[in-house]
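Supplementary Methods, section 5.1.

A reviewer requested that the exact input to the structure prediction be made available. We therefore reproduce it here, unchanged from the version used in the analyses.
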Amino acid sequence: MMRLFINGLAASAGGGLTYLRNVIPELDRRPDVKATVVVSSGLSREFANLRNVSFIEVQDSPNSLRRFYHEQTTFASLIQKSGSQVLISAGNFALWNSPVPQILLSRNSLYTSEDFARDVRTRGEYTLWVDTLVKGWFARKSIERAEVTVAPSEAFARELTVWSGRPVVTVHHGFDADTFTSDDNPLPADAQDQLTAGANALRLLFVSHYNYYRNFETLFRAIPIIKECLQEKKVKLYLTCRLDSAQNPGAYRAEAASSLVSALRAEHNIVEVGAIPYRSLHHLYRACHIYVTPAYAESFAHPLVEAMSCGLPVVASDLPVHREICQEAAVYFPRFSAEQLAMRVLEVHRSSELGGKLSRNGLERSRDFTWSKHVDHLLSLARGLAKGVAA
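The structure derived from this sequence is encoded token-by-token as follows.
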């Protein structure tokens, strides 16, 4: 029997929650595994009738350094009491005094991104810049503390290896198309109304809350170019966020981006549908024509796999991670070029042959990612550590 202790306390939004929501049920299906998972208060209610997974709920702190201190001072005794053989730290930071071998899951590309550092300095966000530097120091030291560090893509693993000087293992994140599309409940009424209003438009989609590293501004500058070239056809960009700082996680300020698109918003070229329940997202993907992402920093990007699984052709910034995940299911553009982004969108829109090829390639590529394979690989690493075998 393999006994795991998983620190999932840092999973409070976005990819972290997606990760736990998929990995926990997969672990529970393994009769030879017992897992104790630390989560923030209330999250365990999402999981019912689990036999092999138990939870410890902790009141999470919005201050990540305070949470780090809490973990360092209390988790060692919790691990010992659970009888676990291996710790999996799922939030970029290792437990420095772990009583058992540790697997660190590192997936925050901001700590290694020169583009992000330059971006926040240009915006005058010096507090955020210093905060990222401090967290980056702890993240790099965490790689030194863990027996094995895992990255969700080969491209990011190479980046972490250069950054830390330590070897990093690649374990792709998974995806379950059947689970993702299993809920037949429709989109919220207001979101459906916004899609209906765009019935005759070229409908672009970008799934993300607002932040700087997803590079919204490059995408916004591309929309007027697309609009001018189309002339006879309207274009609508659907966003799963609001350009309002108070309605987005983190400390990212959306006011400048909101001002940039005020005219486009007034003409309904940009539609802020807001957050969509994860179970309903597949309806939104399938209601759009092209998925776009201008992100300049990424470690995996689940929305790309979700979009491919729904048959959307992808237009993505030319990052090694994006090429690794999408392969021949996307066309690529220089990450800060609004003009090239617009040209790639127009190429896909105007060529049914290209759009169809990208769609077919995406459907095939999305099947390569499964949570079963992801958990198999993690368990293989854990069993090797429990036996004293290096990764």
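The chain has a mean pLDDT of 92. These observations are discussed further in the main text.
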